[in-house]
C-alpha cells in the first residue's frame, strides 16, 4: 500500500495546502492520539482486535458457508447500515459488479435487502427460488425496524411455501440479548455472534462480514491476515511515517484551519467503489456529532469524472480528495479495436483495457494539482483479499484517530435514536405514544408553507 | 407535486433558518431570474423546450424500441455522465432495482456500461448472449474516451462472433459532427440525434433517455406530458408561489448567508434514489465553477438513515436536505407476520409494507426539526412517468435558476477539459505530447512524500 500526500502540501498547491513543518511538528500530538487509541483497545476500540481474534474463529463460518454452497443457489444478506455495507464492500470488491450474471460463477448468487421499499422486497422475493435460498438476517440489537419487517416478509413467504425456517435462515446478532436471539431459540435457527463491544460500522471483520464473504468464495483468511498485517505495521511505525495517523491529521487540519468540510473517497474501480459507501457510514457516524464532522462523498472513477469532477476542479476550496486505485486491474485484456483508423480511436487500439482507467486516475490528479486542490492517493497492488483487509483496517483505525483528534467519541451514534422513536410512535408501537404526540405537533407546525404544483 | 418549505424558516428552526420576509422581498430578484431564463430559452436553455419538441418526435423511437423488444433479450446503454445517468434514473425509478430478475418482466433486460473497469466490461460481455443483445452507444461529442474504448470492446466481441454491427448497435450522437457519426455512415448503423444545443446532463428528455426508456416499456408520452405540464405551471405561476424558483433561492440564500455548502437529495425509494445520482451531476456540473458551487449528496431512505443520518442530525450546520418521496408506493402488500407475539415485532404485523418507509420519511424530518436543521420536502402522488417527467423538468429548471442566481453559466463544464487532455497525453494520442510533458512534470513533483505500508 502506497500513501502519497505530496499534493496536500503548500510546496505543490500553495496557500491551500499544509506545510511539511506543521506536519512534522505534530509528532507529540499524534503520539498522544495513538496512545489514547491503544489504551482503549480492550473496550471502546475492541473492533481493532478483530483480525487477531477472528483468525482463530473461522472454522464454523467455513463449515456453514460450505453447507450453503453445496445446497443453495441464492444467499440474501438482510441488514441495515453496518450490517450490510461491509458485506457489499467484500462482495463487489472481490467478485465484481456482474458476479450474479457471470458464467464463471461457482458459488451462490448474492443479494442485499437493505431497504424496505415494497416494490424491491416483493420483486426480489418473487424472483428467487425460495427452496434454494438462504436469508442471512443481521442485526446487532436484534430488533432494527427495517430488518424486522424484512424478516416478517421473508418468513411470510417461507411459510406460504411450507419451507422450514431453520433451513432457510441464518442469524447474526448479539450473543445473548435481543429479539432475534429469542427467535433463534424458538425456531432453532443457526446463529452467529456479533461481539457486544463491536459496533455495526466496525463489524465487517467479524462474523457479520465473514459469513457472506465465505459463501461467495472470498478468502477470509487472507482478508484477516491483511488486516492483521496492517495492525502490526501501525504498531511498529513512527507516527510521522504512518499513513494511518497522517491521513486523519491532514483531514483534521484542513477541516479546522482551511474550512475543508467535505472529503471525497475517489475509487477507480467498479467493485472498490463500495469502499466509498462503507467509508461514508464509517466517517459520518463516527465523527459527525457535537456540531462538528466532515461530510464524506463516495465517488467512482472514471465514471464520476463525467458527473462531479467539474465541481472538484473549479468549485470552492472545501474538499479533500482521497484517491484509491489498484496498480494492476483484474481480468485485464488487450483491445484489438479493428474498427477504423481514426485519431479519435486509434490511440486506444492494441492497448490493455486497464490503461485508460489507470491514465484517468493519474490525469485527474494532475488536473486537480493544476487547480491547486488538495488530494492524497492510496495505491494497492491489486484488489485482492489481503489488500482489502489492509484497507479496511487502515480506514477503521484512521477514523478512530480522527475522532480522537476532534475530541469526539467515534463509536456511538446518539443522533439517530430520536428518529427511531418517532417511527415507533407513528407505527403505533407500545410505549411510544408520547413520541407520537411530539411528532403530531411537528406535522402541524410543518404545514404552513406548502405549494401544490 | 407538493413542495413544503416550512422547515427552512426561522419560525420552525430559529436562527439557522431564513425569514419569510426575506423570501417575500426577493420577488423582484426572482422575477428577473425567471426573465433571464425565458430570454435564453431558444439558445442556452434550449433543453427546457425538449418536452414540447419531443412530443412530436417519438414515433421513430417507438418503432425502434418495438424492433428491439421483438428481436432481442438484452439492451445495453453505453455512455458516460449525462449519457447514462438519466437512462438509469428512468430505468430504476419506473422498473425498480430488480427488473432484470423479475419473473413479470416482458421487455428486454437493461444493462449500463458507464465505466472502463476491465473486470466489469469483460464479465458483462461474457455473460450476455450477444446474438440477442443490442448496444446503445451514446456520446454527444462522438468521441468520449471511455465510450470509444467500450465501443471497441463491444465491436471486438461482435466481430469475433461474426455478428453484423448494424444489427447490434444503435448510436445516439450529434446530427453531423463527431467520430460516431462517421462510423454510423461507414457501417450503416441506426442513429438518433442529440440536438447540438442540449448538453449531456440536460438530455434525458431527448432521444438519449427516450430510446432506452421505450425499450424497457416506460411510457415516454406520459413522461414528456408530465414535463410539459410542469413547464406550463412554471410559466403561469407567480415566482413566490413557484417551487421551481423558491427551491434555488433557498439553496442560494443558505449557501451565501449561512455557509450551507452541502445539499443532500434524500429520496425514500430504491428506484427513485437514482434521481439523486442524476441530480448530483446536474447540480455539480452546472453550478460548480468560478470558485463557487454547492456539493450535492445522493442519499437513500430509509437505508442511509443507518449510514449518514447521524451526521445530518448532530454535525455542523452546513447542510440543506431535500426530501423526496411518493405518497403511494408501488406493489404495496400486507404483512401477515405470523411469527411471534413480541413487542419488537407486533407493531409491524398486518400493516402495509409501505407504512414503515413512509413513517421513516416523516420521522426523520421530525428529528431534523428537533435539532433545528433546515430541510424542504417534495411529495409526489406515486412514482410514475408523469411524476417523473415533472420532477426532471422541475430540477433542470431550478438548477438553471440557481446558476443564474450565482451568476454562473449553468450549461458549460470547462473544468473537465484539462484532465481529458492529460489522459490523451498519457495514452499517446496524437497532438497531445505537450500535455504529456506537463503531466510528467507533475508526476515528478508529486513524488516527494510517499509512505509505503
In terms of topology, how is this protein built?
The structure is a homodimer of 453-residue chains.
Chain A: E1 2-4, H1 10-13, H2 20-24, H3 27-39, H4 50-55, H5 59-71, E2 74-78, H6 85-95, E3 109-113, H7 118-127, E4 133-138, H8 145-160, H9 165-168, E5 169-173, H10 179-187, E6 191-193, H11 207-215, H12 220-236, H13 243-258, E7 262-267, H14 273-287, E8 295-300, H15 309-314, E9 319-326, H16 354-370, E10 375-380, H17 385-405, H18 417-427, H19 433-445, E11 450-452
Parallel strand pairs in A: 2-3, 2-4, 4-5, 5-6, 7-8, 7-9, 9-10
Antiparallel strand pairs in A: 1-10
Helix pairs in contact in A: 3-17, 5-11, 6-11, 6-14, 12-17, 13-17, 14-17, 18-19
Structural class of chain A: alpha/beta
For the largest beta-sheet of chain A, the strand count, sense and barrel status come to:
5 strands, mixed
CATH architecture of the largest domain in chain A: 3-Layer(aba) Sandwich
Listing every helix as H and every strand as E from the N terminus to the C terminus, the arrangement of chain A reads EHHHHHEHEHEHHEHEHHHEHEHEHEHHHE
The count of β-strands of chain A is 11
Based on the structure, what is the oligomeric state of the protein chains? homodimer
